[in-house]
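Standup, Tuesday
Yesterday: got the pipeline producing structure tokens again.
Today: sanity-check two examples.
Blockers: none.

Example 1:
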Amino acid sequence: MKETVYSIKDLELLSGIKAHTIRIWEKRYGVFSPDRTETNIRLYSDNDLRKLLNITLLLKHGFRISTISQWDEEKVCAMIVSLEKKSEKNPDYLERLTIYMINFDTVAFSGLIDEIIRKHGFEEAVSDVFFPFFNKIGTYWQVGSIFPAQEHYVSNVFRQKLIAEIDQLGPGTPQQETILFFLHEKEQHELSLLFYSYLAKKHGLQVYYLGQRVPFDDLRKLGHLPAIKYLFTAFINSIEADELEDYLRALKNAFPGRKFFLTGRQLQQHNPHLPRGFKVIETWKDFCKYFG
């Protein structure tokens, strides 16, 4: 696999350490020795990024950059492992998940997900850690600081965890009220949809799950099914405001008299006019309260 090349702005975004500070560390402590272009622009490697993320963790635990800069890579890694073993609350989840993503470390990434779930419970882990993490890497992807393979990699690890949790809830019964989960035909980010389908099943609903990229003509064919009482969809990918409102009106016409739940950052961005019977879900707790 070809190594990723990062700019100093990429490192600033991924680590939270200001570019000015990184330059000072290079000059004063020799922390990095980046390659440079013919126009003197710094270029950093995957190893540079890993080193910076590790330094960020150590700084949060009270170590000074003057001390850290004297350690070799083996000593830095040993200190990180030691801190992880000692920590009770593990406040550095996002940094650790990012490091494991950069390294494509499936064992460590999956193990940390399990640890977070054990300590915080599934719902809190998803809302307080995993979704903020995916929002973070979504931003990285948009600005080109990570490549799509990294995002797909961690998304699929987490997707498997979600599906496993859903499977444990069992198939439900025909007597339960039914909710249909689906995404717009241009929408591919389904992690929030899977999570809310888990919550719906946990709260006693029968779930019909169609997933991502559902053509509207196929969706409309289900409008005659009286069993479908609720529908849920999410808007994560960029969509024009007019297209979003047209889609919502089309949904109302295809499923008259049903209750719709909506989530996703595009709703916050566009604040569309909502047809009657449509409700925006801000948090998972709001959704759970609706079903008691």
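Example 2:
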Amino acid sequence: MEIRCPRYLNKPIQVLWWEADEFVVFMIFFTLALVYGYLMWIMMFAAPVGYAKLKSKFPRGVISHLVWTVGFLEIKGYPIYHERRFYE
């Protein structure tokens, strides 16, 4: 069995020319375009570009920390955001 190791371990996963999270934004607007049409076809390409520009202004990992702050994600080894006491 052959297991491939990526050349650069810290390089993000890419789908075409987008990173994985930008591709998710593209697919969300693609689904909305199929359902609603009209303006969503334009937003299907504009939203990932705007998201990429917004994401480039912040340090790496800020999106996952924002999602953790809201409470949608648990980061392994860290307490939940609203926990007042944490014992190691």
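Quick observation on example 2: The mean pLDDT is 80. Helices lie at 20-36, 39-56, 62-70.
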